[in-house]
Write a structure and sequence with these properties.
The chain has 235 residues and is α+β, with helices and mostly antiparallel strands. The protein has four helices and 16 strands.
């Protein structure tokens, strides 16, 4: 970020949900007040307040008299030391419409994949891209879909959950690639490990901000897990 927030500050964000999400991931426990400047246009899941509310809300929040809600984040760390946080989700895959190639490891299970990339979702992001992926999978599987997946599709999972879900998009099985390790939970303290096999087109970005990406090319290793720090939203 171009601005460093003091540890004891209160942050007021006026804009759409995406601005709140992208502000949260650059903070370290500073509370955020989300303000909806145009309630007639935007639903504002992360924007519980109007501009007119600020005169009352800010003093209460500064005095710690307002309830707050924790928001867990995902973190990816690369073998070159770079890292990126996500409030909603991480995308790991190709920069363009070609197949992503990588090695994926979860626990003792490892595979080589050819796919359209991986989405790693937080609780906050579980009603966004994650829900869309589940809806497509359940629609193809039909009524036999597991109850757990259907519950996740409809309800997501809590914002403060100390786990993530990863979903592989369009995995392609072949003689040189597998497609069994395509969906799962990343518990706190665990990591999803990835090794890129993409010569020069692999990327990782968070929360839909494609221009703010990390290069993820051949030989680069990535570890994805729950971030230690959390976001704090004022209610």
């Amino acid at each position: 970020p171009n601005f460093l927030f003091p540890p004891d500050c209160l942050v007021v964000v006026v804009g759409q949900d995406g601005l709140v999400a992208n502000t949260l991931k650059y903070l370290d426990g500073q509370p955020v007040i989300g303000v909806n400047p145009d309630p007639g246009r935007w639903d504002g899941v992360l924007l519980p307040f109007s501009v007119d509310d600020l005169a009352a809300i800010v003093p209460e929040a500064q005095a710690e008299r307002r309830p707050t809600r924790s928001v867990s984040m995902a973190r990816v760390k690369l073998s070159d030391g770079q890292e990126l946080h996500a409030v909603n989700d991480l995308f790991i895959g190709p920069r363009t419409h070609v197949s992503a190639r990588y090695r994926i490891e979860s626990g003792d299970h490892a595979e080589t994949h050819s796919s359209s990339g991986i989405i790693v979702s937080t609780g906050l992001g579980s009603t966004g891209w994650f829900r869309s992926l589940l809806t497509g999978a359940i629609g193809m599987a039909g009524p036999s879909s597991a109850e757990e997946l259907q519950a996740l599709q409809h309800n997501g999972f809590p914002w403060e959950s100390r786990f993530l879900y990863f979903t592989v998009r369009e995995p392609f099985p072949s003689r040189s690639s597998q497609a069994e390790l395509v969906f799962g939970r990343i518990q706190e303290g665990q990591t999803l490990r990835l090794t890129s096999q993409m010569p020069d087109y692999g990327v990782i970005f968070s929360d839909g901000v494609e221009r703010d990406f990390l290069a993820f090319n051949s030989g680069m290793e990535a570890e994805v897990g729950i971030a230690e720090r959390t976001g704090i939203l004022v209610n």
